[in-house]
Amino acid sequence: MMGTDPSSTSIEVKVHPRRDSPARRPLPSPPNPPAVDDHNFSLFRRWFPWLVPTFVVANIVIFIVTMYINDCPKHSFTGSSSCVASFLGRFSFQPLKENPLLGPSSSTLGKMGALEVDKVVHKHQVWRLFSCIWLHGGVVHVLANMLSLVFIGIRLEQEFGFVRIGFLYVISGFGGSLLSALFLPEGISVGASGALFGLLGGMLSELLINWTIYANKLAALLTLIVIVVINLAVGILPHVDNFAHIGGFVSGFLLGFIFLIRPQFKWVSSRHRRRNSSSAHTGPPVRYKHKPYQYALWVISFVVLIAGFVTGLVLLLRSVNLNDHCSWCHYLSCVPTSKWSCKAQQFLCESTQMGNQLNITCLSNGKSDVFPLSNATSTDAQQQICSQLCNS
């Protein structure tokens, strides 16, 4: 067995390089990959917003077409002098007592596709659940909704693109119309408010499902909740369809978990580093694009949304009034006070034919007038005359 003798003299051997070869120097260590500041690059693609402005233009154009068809001077039974802004000609507005929002008559809105539950159920015009979200009751109505759409929708389209926001807007509007039809079967309903509340609901669920990528989370959450609560509180005033607001908000909230889901921050950051770094030693890649709770919320929201829409349509087509099964739900849309009543205003009139003329009398105030029979043959025309007499 060989070994070393600790008492023996140690010999140091040095090897000198050849004179004809340069001295070998230690190789410099490879430079560290440049540090990536996760806060100095765009996490997600920014989209150019064109769909929301298109929606705004479409709503305004449809309102102008509605006013053209309305033609107050021609179709007003009380004469053109009663039309508001008569200098606009056929674009002038209905009398303020009939429509204080500076807009068309209810019969014109019905022709254009307003939500009328009776026609949806008995004439199978389900398309009115979609068409009503593009109509507005007046200038005040359309301007208020379009300003809200610009401030809310453009930001969302920049973040998520036109496809997701387009579906979110339209489907939320349908959800608002559906809930409105189930709780408010009388009268007509128009407006984009349900779709707008859907965008607010989508913003809330987007904040929750993408919680990890936001700074100042709590402040953003509280601000959004306050905005939603204030807008829903306004809906308890009379003549405001708060069920459309609630239906649109709930639909948008569920759709946000489906359409507005983002990859987790670590996955995006890891991919950015690997794409922009020259070194392969950037750490192990993140395996999953989304977190488990994001997948779970996606599935749950999809199932609940489909089940809700199917159930709501079945109940609607069976003429079910949900107020009969919920004694307190009507307070969600209107809370009666000493200043106003939440009961729908009913206009009852009596008509008597006298030759080629029709005498129509409002039973609530006793006012009557005579109209040519040719102008008051349809049921819609008689209802419009009755409304004008009772409001005069």
TrEMBL record:
<feature type="transmembrane region" description="Helical">
    <location>
        <begin position="190"/>
        <end position="211"/>
    </location>
</feature>
<protein>
    <recommendedName>
        <fullName>RHOMBOID-like protein</fullName>
        <ecNumber>3.4.21.105</ecNumber>
    </recommendedName>
</protein>
<dbReference type="InterPro" id="IPR035952">
    <property type="entry name" value="Rhomboid-like_sf"/>
</dbReference>
<feature type="transmembrane region" description="Helical">
    <location>
        <begin position="295"/>
        <end position="317"/>
    </location>
</feature>
<keyword id="KW-0812">Transmembrane</keyword>
<feature type="transmembrane region" description="Helical">
    <location>
        <begin position="133"/>
        <end position="154"/>
    </location>
</feature>
<feature type="transmembrane region" description="Helical">
    <location>
        <begin position="243"/>
        <end position="265"/>
    </location>
</feature>
<keyword id="KW-0472">Membrane</keyword>
<feature type="transmembrane region" description="Helical">
    <location>
        <begin position="47"/>
        <end position="69"/>
    </location>
</feature>
<keyword id="KW-1133">Transmembrane helix</keyword>
<keyword id="KW-0720">Serine protease</keyword>
<keyword id="KW-0645">Protease</keyword>
<dbReference type="InterPro" id="IPR022764">
    <property type="entry name" value="Peptidase_S54_rhomboid_dom"/>
</dbReference>
<dbReference type="InterPro" id="IPR002610">
    <property type="entry name" value="Peptidase_S54_rhomboid-like"/>
</dbReference>
<feature type="transmembrane region" description="Helical">
    <location>
        <begin position="166"/>
        <end position="184"/>
    </location>
</feature>
<feature type="compositionally biased region" description="Basic and acidic residues">
    <location>
        <begin position="13"/>
        <end position="23"/>
    </location>
</feature>
<dbReference type="GO" id="GO:0006508">
    <property type="term" value="P:proteolysis"/>
</dbReference>
<comment type="function">
    <text>Serine protease involved in intramembrane proteolysis.</text>
</comment>
<dbReference type="GO" id="GO:0016020">
    <property type="term" value="C:membrane"/>
</dbReference>
<feature type="transmembrane region" description="Helical">
    <location>
        <begin position="218"/>
        <end position="237"/>
    </location>
</feature>
<keyword id="KW-0378">Hydrolase</keyword>
<feature type="compositionally biased region" description="Polar residues">
    <location>
        <begin position="1"/>
        <end position="11"/>
    </location>
</feature>
<feature type="domain" description="Peptidase S54 rhomboid">
    <location>
        <begin position="124"/>
        <end position="260"/>
    </location>
</feature>
<dbReference type="GO" id="GO:0004252">
    <property type="term" value="F:serine-type endopeptidase activity"/>
</dbReference>
<comment type="similarity">
    <text>Belongs to the peptidase S54 family.</text>
</comment>
<dbReference type="GO" id="GO:0005794">
    <property type="term" value="C:Golgi apparatus"/>
</dbReference>
<feature type="region of interest" description="Disordered">
    <location>
        <begin position="1"/>
        <end position="33"/>
    </location>
</feature>
<dbReference type="Pfam" id="PF01694">
    <property type="entry name" value="Rhomboid"/>
</dbReference>
